Structures are given as C-alpha cells and as structure tokens.
User: Fold these one by one.
Assistant:
Number 1:
Amino acid sequence: MVATFFWLPTAIRSLSAATAAMLSPAPHSVSPRSAFAQVEVLVALLGPLFLLGAVVPDPSDPAAQPLLYSFNDRAWLIVASVGYLINAGWGAYALGARISSAKTWNLVIFVLAFAAHCMFLHLRGEVIRRCPITNLFEIAAFFSWSLVLTYLVIGSTYRMSILGTFTAPVVFTINFCALVLPIDVPSNRPPLGWQLELHATLCLLGFATLGVAALAGVMYLIQERQLKRHELNSWFYSLPAMGELAEVHKRVLLWGFAIFFAGTFMGFFVRHEGMLDWIKIAWTLVICALYLGLLLAPRFIYLSQKKIATFSVASYIFVLLTFWGVNAFTVSHRLHP
C-alpha cells in the first residue's frame, strides 16, 4: 500500500505527459524528452507489475481459487489480444483514410490491453513461482509484452504514436499464434536461478527493442519506395519524416543491441546442466555479429539509410524465423514430459 502512494503520482504525471506527447503532432526534430521524463515513463509502465503483487490474490490461497479459476491467466491474454486487434484495425483504417491514428480512446484501449497483458504475466508467474518464460507459449507472451512496452516508451519519448499502428498487428499475431498452437506445455525443469531469468528477460527485451527498430525501418522503406516511384498515397502523409525515422531507427537499434548484449553477457553466469548448448551459443553469436556489423559498418563503409533499414528488417526476420526452432530443440530449453 505504501508503494502505491510513491508510484501513483509519478504514474499519473508521466503517463499524462506521455499521452500528450503521443497525441501531439510530431516535432521537427527527434530530440528525446529529458532523461528524467524517460525514467518517469519507465516507472509508470513497470509500476503496475509490482503493484499487482500487492493487490492480486495469491493463487495458492484457497479463498482466491474461485476468482482465479473463473478468469484465468489465458483469459487475460485473450482480453489483451482483443485490445491489440482493435488498435490494429483502427490504425489500418486511419492510414487508409489519411487521418491521425492518435486518438485518446485508441490509446486508452492500448494501455488497458497492456494492463491485461501485465495481469496475465503476473498470474502465470504466481502459478509457476518463477518468471513466466518456461515454455514457448510463455516466451511468446512475454516477447509480445516486451514489444508493447518498448513501443510505449519509444513512442512517448520520440512522439511517434504511428509506431503503434505497426506494433499492434505484430503483437496480436504473436499472441494469437501462442493461444491457438498447442505450445502451452508445463515444464518440470527445476529453477536455475535468477541469473537465467535475468539473462532471458534482457534478451527478450533486447529482441523487442530491435523489433521496434525494424518496424521503424519498414516505415522508412515504405516512404522511400513511394518517393522513388512518385506515388504518394495516404501512407506517405501519415508517416513521420524520413529524416526523423532514420534517426530514431539508428538510436533504437543501438539501444536494442545494448540490451541484448547485456542479456547475452548474463548467460555466462547461468548454471548449466550437462553439456553446453553449442547450437544456442552459435546462434547468439550470429545475431550479435549481424547487429554489431549493422551498427559499425556505416563508420567504415558508405551505406545508404535504405540499405541499413533493409538489413535491419532482414536481420530481424532471420531472428523471428530461427528463434522458435533454436529454443525448441536446444538442450537447455527442451521441455521435459
């Protein structure tokens, strides 16, 4: 309860500023808001995760069983997915109609969907008594949650609410596949310590940030293609300026690589059972090499922003296509019956 009084004023102030920033027209420069304001946004977004621990009943408490079983964790994820679907549909309509997708009601639905997503992660974590990343279903849900968190922070920092139009359909698709496919298989692996959870969490957050960078690259390529063909449709006038997208793409790419590298570094402190997963290690090194090369190459050779955006999108498609297979078949992530 005490934590609520410290968090609530910050949440109201920072989310109000974030909402105003995301609903206001994009500025002529992409200078981010102050570092203090960015920290406030993070506190406002992550605060509910800690507060849920105080207000949500413990699933092991018999008195809480009727409530939790009447609306279980998967139901919360379904509610969140419906909210993301509404945002995706509105965003597509707004782009086609050449109107702004940044409406108050739309952002409210997005935030409520994110809150339901947080509730799912909390309830699942309480049930399994660890970070909810023990099977592919939970990993997919945590990854999509990370995408939304990254968008809310970056969108408010750089006043690019249009990113939500591209983020929402990706998040809905990931959640839909996770809910439909039979991948929610309980794992009886023993807990391997906080090092593994921090390693996995940072890597997934890094992947999400790199995903938002790839979405910014997609928006840049859309505008570049329309300018080249002299076909300026409604999408061109709804997207931010190409210079702004290029700068945001570069910065977010750097942040994503830094977070992913920190998660990879934490992997050296994880307690391993048996042999090392050389497949996972090799895959991780390939990902690091791809993005490190993408960040350093422009310093030594000339690369147009179009090529950088194309390589960013291609690298992320490679990550998405290989991530699930690597995690499903490597030894340390293989589920036990």
Number 2:
Amino acid sequence: MNLIKQKITNSYLEEMQKKRPMVKLTFDVMLKSFFARNVLAYKRFLNSVAHLNIQIDEMNLTNKNTELPLYNFREYSKRVDFYTDINGNIFINLELNNALFKNLKFRNRIYQSKKISLLLKRGAKKKDIEKLEKIQNIQLNLNVKDKSSNLGEDIVVPYSIVTDTIYLNNEKTYIRYLDYYRNLYYNGNIELTEADYWLALLTSENYIELNEILSKFVDDDFREEIVRDVIALSNDENIFDIYDGIVGDMLVEASIERDREEEKKQFQKEVDEALKVLKEKNDELKEKSDELKEKKDELKEKKDELKEKDKELKEKDKELKEKDNILKKYNDILAEQEKKKHDESLKIAKKMLMENIDIDIISKCTGIAKKELLKIK
C-alpha cells in the first residue's frame, strides 16, 4: 500500500477504515509507536500539553529506552510509556493510563521519586544534587478511562501546608482527563488551544475523525503526514494483532460487566418491591394503631363520665343500684370489645407471621405475648 502518493480524502479514509479499523491512539503500543515514528508530532504534543513553551526547532529529545520499574507486579496496563530528556534540563515521564486508578496521585508521586532516584548515581556529591535541582521533573499522566467531564487538568506539586507555598518549583505532575477534552471539542463554546486539540485527537475513533481534528490546528502537509503514519501503524500486523486481542478481551469484560449490572438492577427491583410491601404493611398497622388510639380516647371519656355518675350514686342510695346495673352492662360491652380487639390483633399477627416478620416486632406491634404467638405460628 502506497500511503505517500494517495491523496487523503474522506472516501479514501472510509475505505481504509473498512479494510482495517484504526488502532486508537489511546492504545499504549500505538501511541508509543506513533510518537517514535513522528518526532515532530511528539515535540509539538509535549510543548503544548506539558506547558513547556520552547521553540520546536530548539527541542533536542532523547528518549530513554527502558521504562521505570513498577512498584507492584500487578500493574499491568499501567506501565510508563515514555521517559524523555529534553535539552538535558527537562525530564518528562509520559504515562497513558488505560485502567481506573483509585490512588492515582499517590502512585504518580512514587514514580516521581523513582525518576529522581534513577538520576542519582551511587556516591553522588553535592554538585550532582545541585545540578539535579535545576532539572525540571515533569510527570504527564493521560487518563483514558476516568470520566471527569468537569475537570480537564489537575496539577500536583510538593506543597507546604504550614507556609502555604510550593515546596519544589521544578517538580510537577500534570493529570489530563482525555474524556474532558473530547467533550470540549464537540460541546465546548470556547476557543481551543493546541494542547486541547492534541488531547482531543488522542480520543479519535476512526481515520475521518482523526483527519477532521487535525485540520483544526495543523497545516495540510503535516495533517496528511500524521494521517498516513496512523494508517501505516494501524496496518502493522504486530501492532494490530496485540490491539485486536486486547479489544476482544475488553469486549468480553464489558459483556460480563453488563450482565453484572443487569443482576444488580434485578436485585434492586426485588428489594424495592419488598420495601413497597413492607411500607404498605406499616401503613396498615399505623391505621390500626390510630383506630386503637381513638378507642382509648373514647374509653377515657366514658370513664370520666362514670366518675361523675359515681358521685351522684353516692348521694342517692336508691339510684346506686341502677348505676351498678349500668356499670355491669358497660363492663360486658368492654369485655366484648377487648375480645374483638384481641381477635383483630391475632388476625394481624397471623398475617405478619405469614410475611416472616420477626416475632419480637409482631409482639410489640400487636401487644400479643410471644408465648401466645408461638402457639399460633
């Protein structure tokens, strides 16, 4: 395939996308290969994204060949992608994160310390340390999976709480959330910087989108050069095979995650239904409780009436017998009501037992002794 002579058009890019889908630049091997292939793109990327503000033609890059040692053997897909020396006085560690990290700032701080320690050789003298203090040590972290739509960049520096000052001016960590810059490109109402465009570019889903974003901030010759590089790398069998395998694994993981989410939703639905039934039962019990309170209030009123009548009975001996008969009849009615009340409570208790509600709760709500409840269970 002759990528150099082929004119870059949307129809051509659609054809290339169908033949071999673009390997995304958020894939660490692809990003490393792209920047190694196109050094000018790497220079412009670092200069804008890491706030270097250096003339491009004055940037002399030396890429360290080995990655920093990891502090945890489980840190798969968290490895350092680039460790670059610029003009001997700026060291940049570019890291592409393709996983969610809970302790990102802490982990980056460890890498910063390791970078510095690697620069000091055994038996280093004071002048070596003074020379090291003049070097800008930058950690540039590109976060792929963390969705922080309201936060594009976080800057971490050694800071003194007591004196309210930055402790070291030559050590910074820039954490960039790529999803923010993608949203900014498509939904933002502000003028984007070159750094914004580069970070949005890394999220490109296909060749056409890549070409479109590039057209916003680079000239046509450089745009076509970058597009051709990405096409060539995407058609590299070694890169594509690794990418295809990882994408396959990610699809399987996504499917498993979807199943888990469905199970969670179903479980939550069942919990909600159970809570709804329980609320209905509680409402019923509240109604019964209100009814009982009304009955008690009625009984209290009647007792007050009886007290008044009792006084009258003391005054009239003849009327006392008649009042006694009235009281006897009332007591019979009260006993019948108490029996009805007890029977009603038993019905409620049986329903609650059928709902497997704790027997202590039933006893407390109905006033029926646990011993009696155990007999009817």
